[in-house]
């Protein structure tokens, strides 16, 4: 390491220290500053341990947290970006916080959530051992451009990659990456067996209608959700992959499934979550994680960051789920419909920088399929936009209430008993969680 790099590192560590003294999270800022000064800085950290990266549109944070938990429970010392600072700036910040003065990172494993577009950027500089790819959906178009561009970025990285690649076999956008480097013998696919609510026709907007290899229309045996399902190209046979890990006997009502003949309880009732857990199981299999540790993790571990997070208050149950795109929102609506009883929905929509200023994606959400939704509350900076969108779907406008103020919205949501679902987009999910937690605490104090 040259003197210049050494000094840059010390400067970066100083920024982190100052931010910590000011009680500000390191987040992206130190990385942003350092990359501005020295764009090669990522390459000067000394990382000797294996790196496992998780990427894809939806589910990265959850899968990263679960894989991290598996290793920790196995007694390993793991470094992870738990809170999802998943760009190169976030990774540099994380390393600055934890490295020695010479840039050495001490850990048994690094488990990192990485934004799809940053996979090639980051792993040009760091040696990756395993890449897990979950799915590709339209998301935050402002920043990422078309889905296709994004897939091609990851694909170009994989063309020369020799390490482990764990792919979702049921997403054609992901499965195609298995052909990026025919020389790589370490490509492994996970899949989830057809579940009770799988459909013959696609119900949500999806990508991947055509074979990425030859352009022929793909034939689907069934759709699990969005464009995820059992597909095959009638012309070239694309989609016929050997499955490394298969989740079978999915029972969402009783919350369990089997893998390799062993039954696992899970914490959640959505098929989307089952796919995340399939990726976790595949990682566990690859790294020979003890079966009991895997079982306990799937049974009891919860991420609690607004990803299908559950709250109880009096005679109400609420589930908060982050939705950054139509697929995420449609997933929550699907879970709502699969819950037989009456329920209420609160939708919190912001349009801050990290959300993308364009909220037109809400027009791709399937509010038309609402079942037994007795009331809708909207909130956030674009509370009126989402209210109008829901009204346009044919939902009774007299049952829609708009409260731009979040605390007021939460208070009104819990003014009735029963099942509540809350959908919140990227920058609104943490404020919404806090508003719910504050409401619950205030209510308990008053009792
Ligand atoms: Zn084909």
Write structural notes for this entry.
The chain is α/β, with parallel strands linked by helices and 447 residues long. 35% of the residues lie in helices and 21% in strands. The protein has two domains: 3-300, UDP-N-acetylmuramoyl-L-alanine:D-glutamate ligase, CATH 3.40.1190; 309-446, Mur ligase, C-terminal domain (Protein-Tyrosine Phosphatase, Chain A, Alpha-Beta Complex). It is built from 14 helices and 19 strands. A nine-stranded mixed sheet has the order 3-5-2-6-7-8-11-12-13. The protein has a six-stranded mixed sheet with strand order 14-15-19-16-17-18, sandwiched between helices. The radius of gyration is 22 Å and the shape is globular. Bound molecules: zinc ion. Residues 211, 213-214, 216, 233, 235-236, 238 line the site of zinc ion.
């Amino acid at each position: 390491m040259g003197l210049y790099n050494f000094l840059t590192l010390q400067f970066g560590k100083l920024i982190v220290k100052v931010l910590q003294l000011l009680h500000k999270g390191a987040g992206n800022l130190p990385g942003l500053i350092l990359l501005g000064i020295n764009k090669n800085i990522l390459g000067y950290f000394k990382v000797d341990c294996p790196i496992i990266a998780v990427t894809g549109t939806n589910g990265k944070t959850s899968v990263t947290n679960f894989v991290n938990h598996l290793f920790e429970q196995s007694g390993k010392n793991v470094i992870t970006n738990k809170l999802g600072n998943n760009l190169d700036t976030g990774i540099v910040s994380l390393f600055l916080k934890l490295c020695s003065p010479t840039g050495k990172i001490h850990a048994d494993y690094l488990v990192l959530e990485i934004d799809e577009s940053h996979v090639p950027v980051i792993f040009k500089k760091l040696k990756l051992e395993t890449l897990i790819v979950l799915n590709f959906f339209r998301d935050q178009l402002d920043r990422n451009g078309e889905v296709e561009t994004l897939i091609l970025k990851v694909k170009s990285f994989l063309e020369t990659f020799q390490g482990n690649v764990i792919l979702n076999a049921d997403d054609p956008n992901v499965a195609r990456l298995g052909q990026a480097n025919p020389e790589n013998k370490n490509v492994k696919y996970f899949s989830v067996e057809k579940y009770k609510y799988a459909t013959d026709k696609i119900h949500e907007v999806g990508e991947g209608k055509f074979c990425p290899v030859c352009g022929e229309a793909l034939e689907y045996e069934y759709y699990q959700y969005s464009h995820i399902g059992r597909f095959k190209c009638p012309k070239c046979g694309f989609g016929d992959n050997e499955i490394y890990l298969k989740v079978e006997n999915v029972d969402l009502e009783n919350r369990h499934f089997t893998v390799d003949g062993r039954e696992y309880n899970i914490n959640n009732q959505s098929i989307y979550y089952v796919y995340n857990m399939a990726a976790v199981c595949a990682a566990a299999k690859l790294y020979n994680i003890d079966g009991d540790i895997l079982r306990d993790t799937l049974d009891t571990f919860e991420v609690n960051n607004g990803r299908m997070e559950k709250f109880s208050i009096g005679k109400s149950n609420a589930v908060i789920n982050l939705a950054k795109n139509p697929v995420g929102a449609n997933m929550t609506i699907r879970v709502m419909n699969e819950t037989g009883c009456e329920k209420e929905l609160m939708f919190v929509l912001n349009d801050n920088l990290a959300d993308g200023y364009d909220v037109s994606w809400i027009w791709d959400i399937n509010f038309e399929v609402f079942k037994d939704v007795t009331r809708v509350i909207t909130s956030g900076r674009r509370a009126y936009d989402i209210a109008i969108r829901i009204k346009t779907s044919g939902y009774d406008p007299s049952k829609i209430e708009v409260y731009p103020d979040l605390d007021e919205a939460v208070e009104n949501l819990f003014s009735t008993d029963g099942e509540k679902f809350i959908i919140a987009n990227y920058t609104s999910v943490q404020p919404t969680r806090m508003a719910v937690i504050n409401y619950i605490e205030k209510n308990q104090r008053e009792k």
